[in-house]
Specification:
Layout lengths: L4 E9 L2 E8 L9 E6 L2 E5 L4 H12 L6 E6 L5 H7 L4 E8 L2 H8 L6 H6 L3 E5 L2 H5 L12 E6 L19 H8 L2 E11 L5 H8 L4 E11 L4 E11 L3
Parallel strand pairs: 5-6, 5-8, 6-7, 8-9
Antiparallel strand pairs: 1-2, 2-3, 3-4, 9-11, 10-11
Helix pairs in contact: 1-2
Length: 238
């Protein structure tokens, strides 16, 4: 019989202790639920992945052409990256993750999608800061390389940051620097736990000529209610 709760790993990182946990909730079925916490803060659960998958699906749906070259900011439990790889047009996915243990969990196949990502030759893990690379180059071996899409799922929202140091990214100059790494007509898409914020839409509109938002709904069995996240989708000229 599977354990109802187990902590699979816990390690120190530059922004705090991160832990991977697995639990079974009989009322919800026998499928294990994987959870990640940073300190005492709950980060993610494999029970709620609709918005992470929609980030890739809707972000890439806004892209034109084939042989898509994609950057995913934030690995998490792998759902955004796997959803991106399910688009037949995708040629390469670079997943930028600050926390080395999260990459290690995938490479050791300790999380359900770890093997899928680790075994796909189109997928590359980069251990680094998305926010630093976004304003320089995502690949030091290819300076000036441009991408079809950049999909970001790190902070809780444009105002609620996983780490206070991330706040400096959400300003026009840094968004412009990131947009330079997109091809003409390239897409920047970002997940948020909150409903669309007009101030952030206005900020994106200073950089991108086309900006839209989408609300993603999902069921929360704990609250027996329907909840929502949102996506920001912006395109460059072209």
């Amino acid at each position: 019989m599977a354990k109802l709760f187990e902590e699979l790993d816990s390690r120190d990182t530059p922004i705090g202790e991160i832990s991977l946990r697995r639990r079974v909730i009989p009322a919800l079925g026998a499928t294990p639920i994987y959870e990640v916490k940073l300190g005492e803060e709950f980060l993610m659960s494999s029970l709620f992945v609709a918005a992470e998958e929609a980030l890739a699906e809707q972000g890439l749906a806004a892209c034109n052409g084939d042989a898509l070259d994609v950057v995913v900011g934030g690995l998490g439990l792998g759902h955004t990256a796997v959803a991106a790889l399910q688009d037949a047009r995708v040629q390469r996915v670079k997943v930028v993750e600050l926390l080395a243990p999260v990459i290690d969990w995938h490479q050791r196949h300790w999380v359900p999608l770890g093997k899928t990502l680790s075994d796909d030759p189109r997928c590359e893990f980069i251990n680094g800061s998305f926010f630093e690379l976004a304003v320089s180059d995502f690949d030091s071996q290819e300076p000036g390389h441009q991408y079809d899409a950049i999909l970001l799922d790190i902070d809780h929202s444009p105002r609620a940051f996983l780490h206070t140091g991330n706040a400096g990214f959400y300003v026009p100059d840094n968004l412009v620097a990131m947009a330079r790494q997109l091809k003409p007509g390239g897409v920047f898409a970002m997940w948020s736990q909150d409903l669309p914020e007009p101030e952030f839409v206005a900020l994106l509109e200073q950089v991108f000529p086309s900006v839209s938002t989408e609300i993603v709904y999902f069921d929360n069995p704990f609250r027996q209610a329907r909840e929502s996240n949102c996506l920001y989708i912006a395109r460059t000229h072209g």
